Structure formats: C-alpha cells, structure tokens
Amino acid sequence: MTEARTEAPTVITGGGGGFDLLVVGGGSAGFAAAIRAADLGARVAMVEGGTLGGTCVNVGCVPSKTLIRAAEAQHRRVHHGFRGIPSTDGQPDWPTVRGEKDALVAELRQSKYWNVLRVYPSITLFQERATFASGRTLTAGKIVVTTGSSPWAPSIPDLAEAGYLDNASAMALERLPQSLIVIGGSAVGLELAQMFVRLGVRVTVLEALPRVVAAEDADIGNALADYLRSEGLEVYTDIRVDRVSRGSDGYEVQYHAGSAARFARAEQLLVATGRRANTAGFGLDTIGVTLGTKGEIVVDEFLQTTNPSVYAAGDVIGDPMFVYVAGYAGALAAENALTGNERRYDLSALPKVTFTDPAVSSVGLTENEARAQGIEPLVSKLPLEHVPRALAAHDTRGFIKLVADAATKKIIGAHILAAEAGEMITQPTLATKLGLTIDDVTSTFHPYLTLSEGIKLAAQAFTKDVAKLSCCAA
pTM here? Predict the structure, then answer.
C-alpha cells in the first residue's frame, strides 16, 4: 500500500489510465471493494478525504455498542434479578468510560483499516477529498462510489438555530447531562436513549410514528416501549414536533399528541431521525450519475449507476444502511465492475438487529407482509418464559415469533425480542435463505440451556403446546 497527499482535490475520470479501479470512500464498502479488486489482480486507487474507516468503526457500531455494554454493566449492579446477590449503586465515571470507547475505536481503526491496507501493495490511498469537477486528475477503467452517509434531521422550526446533538457528538460529550430529549424512536435513538438512562440521565423519547422501531413487527415495538418505560424512559409515540427552542437552562421541544399541545424540557437534545447519502459536492451530476429523491445514488441490480463505468455501494445508495450490507455490496460492485455484471445484489434474507435491552432482531417477512404478498402465513409466538435459558438467567422479557408459509411450511420470517436477540437471528436467517421448513428446524439438534434453543421451541409451538413438553423433548 502506498499513500499520496496533494493540496488540490482529486478529480476522477474514466477511460483507463493508471488504475483499473478507483474507489471513492474509505469506509466499510470502500475497503471491501478495494480488497476484492486487489484479490482479482487489479490496480486500485482509494480516495478518502476524511477519517479512514467510515461510520461504523469511528462514530457508529463500535463506539455505540461498547458504551451500551458499559451502561448495561452499570444497570446490572442494581437490576440483576438474583436474590442473595448484593446490589451496589454508584455514579458512573463517564470520562473513563468514554476514554475506553475512544481507545477501542483507535485500536480497530488501526488494525482493521490501516494495517489491512499494508497487506495489499496494489492499493494506493489518496488522503484527500474527491471531486468529478476540478483539480488534479486520476484516471481509472471503472469507478466505485462508496461515500457513505451522514445524520439527517427533519425540517423542524428553529431546530437548526437551536443546535442539537447527533449520534457522534452525543457519544463524545465531555460530561453526562442531567436530562436529554431524543427525537426519533428507531434503532439509534432507542439504543442511545437507554444507554443514557442507565447512566443516570433523565431521558424523554419523542417518535412521530405510532410505535417505536416502526419497521419491525408491531408486537415488538409495543412490547419494547413498555420495557423501556419500566426502566424510567419517558416514551411518547404518534406525536408531531412543532418547534424547538434553546435557552440558558437547556432545550424546550413543543409537540402535539393528538390535539393536545405538550412540552418537553431537557439540558440536551439528540436528533436521531435517520441518515442521508453523502452525494453533494462530488460533481456526480457532471458524469451522468442519477440521484434519487433522498439524494441517494440510483443503481440497478448489479450496483451499476446510470453511467456504465460507475458503480456504487453502501450507505450512499440508500437503505438499508448496515455495515455488513456495505461490505457485501462493496465487494460485489468491484467484482461486477471488473469482470462484468455476473452477480446480483440480493437482500432477500437480510437480518437486522437493534441493540436495546431486550434487543430486537428480525429477518424476512412479518405476517402482514406475507399476506400482502399473497402468502397465507402460519405464526408461532413463543414467550421467553418457555425458554429454559431465559428462566435460568432470570430474564424472561420478550418473545420469539416465527412466520411460515402455510402451503409449504417453509420459514419465511423471524422476529425476536430477547436479551441476546442478535445472537439468535443467524439460524432463522439461514432457514429463510435456504428455504428450510418447520420440520427442518425442529429435527435439528439445539443445545440445551441456550437462547437459540428457543428457535426450536418456537418451531415446535406451531403444532405443540411446549408448556406440556419435558426438557429437550422432540
């Protein structure tokens, strides 16, 4: 790997030249594209004007999940469910917790990005911003755009003037606030809201849609909101934010719940209402790349843009914005760009995880989505109180819901609310992807006293009352 720095921005053009593939962006999708191209023997240039590693390792998955786990450790000091185990309370040392988060981010950025580049001498990194308009020129046979996304806020009156936190700045606060308002009740908003409340912050969540995690099964959103409220979060759904103001003592958010006007007040305000693709300022319009209604790059099933020489992957093409999707897409885009459009972009069995506690995971169709596609669903919903591992852990919050096709008995969806839901979703993902049936799941060995045994029990519950089964009964 070699590095190059220049004062002027890098201009990217097609039509051959010094590189076979030029990757714009140095995050997860960009690295996957560059590595796949290098494995194919290509000469690769990567252009990244910001911090190497992109959203996930720097300001997304890695820092948030380590802080969430730290907050869970604080919470479990008092709330663990076991008699005879002493509970001790105490204020968290936030600067130390934040410092450990920063150290982990730096370590993974070095080991998973900088050190990885050194393994590939055919990849040249240009540490500068790319443009398709003016400056020094790099030429390449094909181009993959992987410029990622940034936090987005809706047009709420006076919000921009008042200022607010996004997910990155919230995790970088020098001290914990006494109180916090979170606008947005999807994954990021809820994960950070619960993290802060467990660290002693008074938190209010405002969500415009009828329930939190609205993209998930309705039962999950309703149940999760109740669990969060039981921890002290104030969660309000189906509201309309009217105005935001900021004074010397903090923020005031005016909103409507039905016809009633209400106010929420707090020291800090976090806006977690989604992300938008980073496409402005690159000159994409000058090379015939079409953008969608939210600024995302429009691609076909091969991740090719409306310019045949340009491909795109990751958050920049829009939802779903998951790092594992970005990695998959980056490698696929590079391969298609270099070898011809042989692989299709397939998200038909895509697992999703929200790292609340209990956590949410899902894959495939809900029962309503199945009906909308003309599929008659079979549904099994198993409360965690029937899973021995949950009983042993004294944590029976949540349930496992499986959806099957009534005609074929194939598993077509799974929706889980459980302490470690993210660790449970891979098996249903494989079942959905490979077309496995209910009998395929129930006839497979599942180790006793694991949460994943709950998948088998939920599959058995299609036809049996598992409360009447002995341990490990087939």
Answer: 0.91
